[in-house]
Amino acid sequence: MPRLTAERREAKRAEIVAAARRCFSREGFHQTSMPDIAAEAGVSAGAPYRYFASKEEIILAIAGDAFRLIFEPVERLADGTDAPTLGELVAAALGTISGETVRDAAGHPVDVDELLRCAVQTWSEALRSDEVRGPAAEGFERVRASIAGALDRGRAAGTVPATLDPDRGARVVMGLLHGFLLQRVAFGLTDTAGLAADLHAGLIM
Amino acid sequence: MPRLTAERREAKRAEIVAAARRCFSREGFHQTSMPDIAAEAGVSAGAPYRYFASKEEIILAIAGDAFRLIFEPVERLADGTDAPTLGELVAAALGTISGETVRDAAGHPVDVDELLRCAVQTWSEALRSDEVRGPAAEGFERVRASIAGALDRGRAAGTVPATLDPDRGARVVMGLLHGFLLQRVAFGLTDTAGLAADLHAGLIM
Fold it and tell me: Where's the DNA-binding part (chains A, B) (predicted)?
């Protein structure tokens, strides 16, 4: 029954990814070894290699998950047909990073703090590894362009001021997301939801 | 002549810090060794140890320089007696990260790209090292409070809307600084000066 086998494989892979996320979140990418990840997952030292050729492959998988989960709410709003305001786009951008738990594509719960701590580390990795920077830059540009498109629709619909340059407005949304993400994990400023509500209510826009 | 000796010592120390910054910027903190730094500086393998007990001490020195240089323009504006607008504070916050070269306390030129690439790495370090997080969090809080104070003066003077919460406004300024810093080094969006000008001109505030 190949279907069951595939499901079991997927569940085991998810356990290894979750264990790696806990290790990376505590110790960092570079202070964590494959045997550390196996021990955290409670599997044999060789087991992770049945799913990932190297620690770098696990980092890439976690970076991809983090990106998708963090940007999902703003991408969904921006890719719709509505004409959201800049404040609504900012509030959506802060959605995942204001929460405690999200669910990955397979429905497994993911601790948001762990996810964000891994995301900050992928920024450093992107500076020295083409393998990390390539997909990160491509994903960033896709979301940025999608937000700019939504702001352009908003200008046409009158929900966004005509003086707002969509490309620059999109960079502000992305900048606030990254900046508040960093404030939450590195500087203990956890009231991101309150900030989002203020911004949404028209505090600065 | 102890003064000359102290000057020479300071110049040599600055050369080692500059060499470390180049190495860290290219390869990252963890892929750089003390012998790598000595080779980059063109000194003997033991020479860096006359100035720093470990690579971690050099990382702390560079993190301190980066923090001071990045926040200097907005701290100066916020610590003055003027009542700047939110837009003026954002423009000041983007000052250093929009430039190409700055000068450190001793007057040595520092490449801004290198400085910012090191800054992104200190964020990851702050997540796992108390020695990095302590001063970083303290410095962040000092600048944030200083910006909040300036916004409070602005509310009293009428240059800042009464509806703007100074603490939250300060987090927006810090968030945009960190977000645009990351966009410049990791996502190739270098027109930070243009963004600052737009924000200053009242694009969103």
Answer: 33-52
